[in-house]
Specification:
Blueprint (H helix, E strand, L loop, with lengths): L1 H4 L8 H19 L4 H17 L9 H19 L4 H28 L2 H6 L5 H22 L4 H6 L2 H10 L1 H16 L7 E3 L7 E7 L3 E6 L4 E5 H5 L4 E2 L7 E9 L5 H12 L12 E7 L4 E9 L5 H18 L18 H19 L10 H10 L1 E5 L4 E3 L7 E7 L2 E6 L5 E7 L3 E3 L1 H6 L6 E4 L3 E7 H10 L1 H47 L4
Antiparallel strand pairs: 1-2, 1-5, 2-3, 3-4, 6-8, 7-8, 9-16, 10-15, 11-14, 11-16, 12-13, 12-15
Helix pairs in contact: 3-5, 4-5, 5-7, 12-13, 14-15, 15-17, 17-18
C-alpha cells in the first residue's frame, strides 16, 4: 500500500499518511463486514498486483484504479464516521460501491493490456478499441451500482423511450463514426504513418497522423492537416501507397518524334533514369509505347520508389534526366505546332523529293561491303529501286517455306537465321550482322524460303527485289560472281550444321523408336 500511495501522494507526506491511513483501513475492513468487504479486498489485491506487474515506465497508470479505490474508501468512511438517515446513506454507499467497482475494472484492464506478461504474450489492441473498453467498464460499473442499489436499469430505458429515441437520432453520426473507426482498426486498411489517398482528387493524398474513435487525421503534402470522419473513410475507396510493401509505382509520360524508332527511345530513357536518386533498381524501370499522338509518339515511363513522400521531386528528376539524355542523343521533344503550308505539286517538286530519298538510300548502300566496287551509275540505279524497312527486336522478317523474290541487306542490327527439323525442333544456323545480306536464294533462283529469319535487335534493312537487281546483274557480272561465291559458302555452312544436328537427333530418334517398340511389345505381350 505504501508503494501504491507514492504514486498519488507527495513524498513528503507519505510517512504521515501511512501512520493513520493503514491502521484505519485495517480497523475499518475488520469492522465493515457484509456489504462491500469482498469487493474492497478484491480491489486492493488487484491494485497491488497491477503495481507489481506493470513495467516501470507505465506504473503511473496505476493512479486511475488507485484514485477510484480511494474515492470508494472516502465515501465509505463518511458513512461509517457520520451516521445519517437512510435517504443520505444510500447514495453515499452507492458512490462508495461505484468507486470500488471502477477500481476493480480498471485494474483488470491494466493487467490484461498493460502488464509485462500481457505485452509479452498478447498483441496490443488498437487505441480506439481500448477507449471503447474503458467506456464499457464505466458503463458496466454504473449498471452494477444501480442494480446493487435496487434500481432496475431497464426501467430507466422503458420509462424514457422518447428521450432515448431523441438521443439516438442526435448521436447517429457519432455512433456511425465510432463503429467505422472500430472497423478500420479491425480490418487495418491503413495504419499511422501510411500514405493514403482518401478522395478521387490527387491533391487528397497524405500521411496518417492519428486514428481515434471519431475521425482520422491526415497531413497532406502541403503540410495541411485534414480531419476526415471515420464514416466517410468507411464509405470510400482508399488507396494505400505504403502497403503491402513500401514500393509504389510512379508514371511519367514523354513524347518523342515519329522519326526516331521507338525501341531506340525506350533504350535511351531506361539508361537515363536507372541511376536517378529515389528510383529503385528492383523492380527495374520500364518504358512502353503508350500512344501515337498528333505531335509525336507518347511513351509511358514507369518506375518504383520507396520514398513516396518525395514523389514529386523524383518525378521532376526523372523528367530532367530524360531531357538531358534526349539532348545528348539528338532526340527532340515535339510540342503541339499548327503549321499550315501551301505546296504546289509539279514534276520538279516530285523529282526533288525522289532524289532526296534516293540519296538517303545511297548513303546506306555505300556502307555495304560487296557493293563497294559497283560503278556509281549502277549504285545510283539500285538506290532508286530498293526499299527501306525497319523491324523491331523479335519480329519475324521471313518465314521458312514462304515464297519470295527479295534480297535483304542489313544496314544495322542483327538477325537470327534458323531452320525447322522434322521433329518440330528449330535449329539456329547463323547470325547475320551489319553489312551482310540474306534471302539471296529466293531472289536468285525463285525457290521458297529455306529458313526463318527473326530480328535479334532493332534492324534497318534495304530490300532488293528481282526487278531492281536484274539490270544491275546484267551490267555488272562481277557482282553476280561475288554473290554466288558468298551464297555457296553460306549454303555449305548451313548444310554442315544441319547435318550434324540431324545425326545427333537421329540417334535420339532411334533410341526413342526402340523404347516405344519395347513398350508396345510389353503392353501387348508380344514375343
Amino acid at each position: 500500500m505504501t508503494n501504491l500511495m507514492r504514486l498519488v501522494l507527495p513524498a513528503a507526506s507519505l510517512e504521515e499518511t501511512s501512520q493513520w491511513l493503514v491502521p484505519w483501513l485495517g480497523e475499518w475492513a475488520t469492522n465493515l463486514g457484509g456489504y462491500g468487504s469482498v469487493e474492497l479486498f478484491a480491489a486492493v489485491f488487484l491494485v497491488v498486483m497491477t503495481a507489481i506487474l506493470l513495467p516501470r515506465e507505465n506504473r503511473s497508470k496505476v493512479r486511475g484504479p488507485l484514485v477510484a479505490l480511494i474515492a470508494g474508501l472516502f465515501f465509505t468512511g463518511l458513512v461509517e464516521i457520520w451516521p445519517t438517515s437512510a435517504a443520505v446513506r444510500l447514495p453515499l454507499e452507492s458512490l462508495a460501491f461505484f468507486g470500488v467497482v471502477c477500481s476493480t475494472g480498471l485494474s483488470l484492464f491494466l493487467l490484461f493490456f498493460e502488464s509485462s506478461p500481457a505485452r509479452k504474450w498478447m498483441p496490443q489492441p488498437p487505441r480506439i478499441l481500448r477507449d471503447v473498453l474503458l467506456g464499457l467498464i464505466y458503463l458496466g460499473a454504473l449498471l452494477v451500482t444501480l442494480m446493487e442499489a435496487g434500481v432496475a436499469p431497464t426501467s430507466l430505458v422503458t420509462g424514457s423511450a422518447l428521450v432515448t429515441a431523441a438521443v439516438g437520432l442526435s448521436m447517429k453520426d457519432t455512433l456511425g463514426n465510432i463503429f467505422a473507426g472500430l472497423s478500420i482498426q479491425v480490418e487495418h486498411p491503413f495504419d499511422v504513418g501510411d500514405w493514403i489517398q482518401f478522395d478521387p482528387s490527387p491533391q487528397q493524398i497524405g500521411r496518417v497522423l492519428e486514428i481515434n474513435w471519431r475521425a482520422t487525421k491526415i497531413i497532406t503534402q502541403d503540410e495541411v492537416v485534414v480531419v476526415v470522419p471515420n464514416s466517410n473513410l468507411a464509405q470510400t475507396a482508399i488507396r494505400n501507397f505504403t502497403k503491402p510493401t513500401v514500393h509504389s509505382r510512379r508514371s511519367v509520360y514523354v513524347t518523342a518524334p515519329y522519326e526516331v524508332p521507338p525501341r531506340r527511345v525506350q533504350q535511351v530513357i531506361r539508361a537515363a533514369i536507372v541511376d536517378t536518386p529515389g528510383v529503385q533498381s528492383d523492380p527495374p524501370p520500364s518504358v512502353i509505347t503508350s500512344s501515337f499522338g498528333d505531335n509525336g509518339i507518347e511513351f509511358w515511363v514507369r518506375y518504383f520508389t520507396t520514398e513516396f513522400e518525395r514523389r514529386d521531386g523524383i518525378d521532376s528528376d526523372v523528367r530532367d534526366r530524360i531531357w538531358y539524355a534526349f539532348q545528348r542523343h539528338g532526340i527532340s521533344i515535339p510540342y503541339p505546332v499548327r503549321d499550315s503550308r501551301v505546296r504546289q505539286v509539279n514534276a520538279d517538286t516530285e523529282a526533288h523529293i525522289q532524289e532526296r530519298q534516293t540519296q538517303q538510300r545511297l548513303e546506306i548502300l555505300r556502307q555495304i561491303d560487296f557493293l563497294a566496287d559497283l560503278p556509281p551509275e549502277a549504285l545510283n540505279q539500285l538506290a532508286a529501286q530498293v526499299q527501306r524497312r525497319m523491324y523491331a527486336a523479335g519480329e519475324r522478317i521471313i518465314r521458312e517455306g514462304d515464297a519470295g523474290d527479295e534480297l535483304f541487306i542489313l544496314a544495322s542490327g542483327e538477325v537470327v537465321v534458323s531452320v525447322g527439323e522434322p521433329g518440330g525442333s528449330v535449329v539456329e544456323v547463323n547470325r547475320v550482322g551489319p553489312r551482310q545480306f540474306f534471302g539471296e536464294m529466293s531472289l536468285l533462283t525463285g525457290q521458297n524460303r529455306s529458313a526463318t529469319v527473326i530480328a535479334a535487335h532493332d534492324c534497318d534493312l534495304l530490300v532488293v527485289n528481282k526487278a531492281a537487281l536484274s539490270p544491275i546483274l546484267e551490267a555488272t557480272p562481277q557482282l553476280a560472281e561475288f554473290i554466288s561465291e558468298t551464297v555457296s559458302q553460306r549454303q555449305a555452312e548451313v548444310e554442315q550444321r544441319t547435318a550434324e544436328h540431324r545425326r545427333t537427333r537421329g540417334i535420339t530418334l532411334q533410341d526413342e523408336r526402340r523404347d516405344l517398340l519395347k513398350r508396345i511389345r510389353e503392353f501387348f505381350s508380344l514375343e
